[in-house]
Design goal:
Length: about 350
Amino acid sequence: MKILILTDYRTAFYSSAKNARTLCTLDTIKIKENLEKQGYEVETSNFADIALDRQYTGTYVIYTSSEDRGLKYRSYIEDTILFLKERGATLIPDFPFLRAHHNKSFMEMLRYDLFPEQAKMLNSKIYGTLEDLEGTEIPEQKYVIKSAYGAGSKFVKSAKNKKELLAIAKRISSGHTLEDVASEYRRRIFWRGYQRGSLNRNKFIVQDFIEGLEGDVKVLKYGKRFYALYRENRQNDFRASGSGNLTFALPETINEERLLSYAKTVSDKIGTPLCSMDIAWNGTEFILIEFQCLCFGPYTAEYSSYYNIFEQGQWNKIDEECCVEDILCEAIHDHIKH
């Protein structure tokens, strides 16, 4: 069987926390050699080198993504990956999970599709413009508002009431240039009957605020291996992502086996060989906050001294220093085999 590994214009593939200040990539030579030992015919290529006149039936494609500003290069990656699917390739992961990468609005839509009961707990609403939000009935309560883009909670805010929600939404959804403003106001002044266009068209998500959360757990799945890392909230803040307050020792309030079983149920439903999950515990049940299925940060695995695996009806902890390239290849091979 054939596997095509697609790297970006810098020859980067996925990421490594241990070389974050350089190219921040996994070792594709090591990945290629590892997969070849499993009997695959492996080709490594840049997106720009894809042959448009070639059929890819019978080829598995594992590919990187991008979080570039404005997602212009990511848009190009999406075009290429969707083209490969149309030409017969089997994508790992499938296209919707690429669309959901660094795109919280589509990730929320996937959550509603895969986990409708879980999604209702957060009561997420997705908006394409500020005017979409202004035109809805907004109860007086606390909210969480997120830009569809961004990592490390940079564009995640809380609002105490309706007025604060609208003010934050106006800032988050703003993405216009001076030229956009000038053009819009010319139309408003000189075009009789003109219906106003929005100057706030960066999409965003509004969710109910969950009280009492002191942090969350980052759980990474690589095939059968599960790694967990607790992230405490920032000081005087509700956000855990990007806090830097990290520990591999879970709080006494969280049962590790119940957490892992929940993460396994979620990731099995998602069905991808690799998965990153942000999971919160509200004292009664676990809540899936976010998930990604490619190009997520591997810190939780890279710096862990063990992994968890479910065997013969129970969770076992296996001591091992992690090599991300090795466990990624194992996960890909198991996914294809099964």
